[in-house]
Amino acid sequence: MLYINGRSFTRKMTTGVQRYALEITERLNIKATTLQPSEVFSTAISGYIWEQLILPSSLKGFLWSPSNMGPILYRKQVVTIHDIAVFDHPEWFSKEFRLAYHLLLPTLIRRVKHILTVSEYSRQRLIKQFSLSPTKVTAIPLAAATQFKPLTASEIIQARVRHGWPERFLLSVSSLEPRKNLSRLLHAWEAWPNRPEELRLLVVGTASKVFAGQGFDRVPDGVQLLGRVEDTALPSLYAAAEALVYPSLYEGFGLPPLEAMACGTPVITSNTTSLPEVVGDAALLINPYLEVSLLQAMQQITEQPQLRAELSARGLERSKLFSWDRTATETERLLLEQAH
């Protein structure tokens, strides 16, 4: 019997970690039971208590923990660790979150049968940080959901009118946290000389208590914070944008660039961590620590229709290399191997 640690399913869908857990769980062909805490354990601290003390007592078989953490006393387990940003950049996270992960994760990693991760970058970081055997860590990439696809010009116009989106805009999609580098993005936007008057920057995302702030302190003119956008509207938003701007400082994978490429939307993203693995040669890669690099890329993408067309075509082809069905199949195969 396979059990799935469903702690992340109790929260509203806002992160790539939650998306991963849901997409894989829905596609598994093997019999699996998802266990998740009741409302009594809805806070972060009580959620850890449920995961560490109550979940193990319900288990009579193999466990898959898909969302970065699992019960440290349960050895018959595969855990998916998306990244170790909390070790590489502890300053980005709240004191409580840092303490929990620094206390629990090293023990969990030593005890579990196998570790899954989502990119070769994260795989190498895990091996180095925790002195692991390379055979104990497997990287299986994420994918864009099937609803992320190109739209016709007429469908884009209808979506723009329905939602009240501006006619011309660049898009940022990320949680509001320091590592997403929104501060430099907003500074570059503000410093843009002769920026087209009608152009807007739409920022999708919400803040979380696990992070040390949202990464910026003011919103310049021409920028709109949309908060959380429903899953049904997000593909249209990508498709309507002139480009996705994703200058993240650190990613275990980075789903938004892949989702944008699957919609035929050009992408500006960072040349660091896992992001070059995801986008290949299908995006404009920038140094995320240099605002001038970000500004020049935004100028290029808005002023050169031919460049947008080339990146759109390359991005569509690149996105076809990733599939949730294939990710689920490879994950299922690994879980079956480790369970026996």
UniProtKB/TrEMBL annotation:
Any one Pfam family match given in the protein's UniProt record, by short name: Glycos_transf_1
Gene Ontology molecular functions: glycosyltransferase activity
BP-aspect Gene Ontology terms: lipopolysaccharide biosynthetic process
Keywords, sorted A to Z: Transferase
Domain Glycosyl transferase family: 166-315
Protein name: Glycosyltransferase involved in cell wall biosynthesis
Organism from which the protein derives: Deinococcus humi
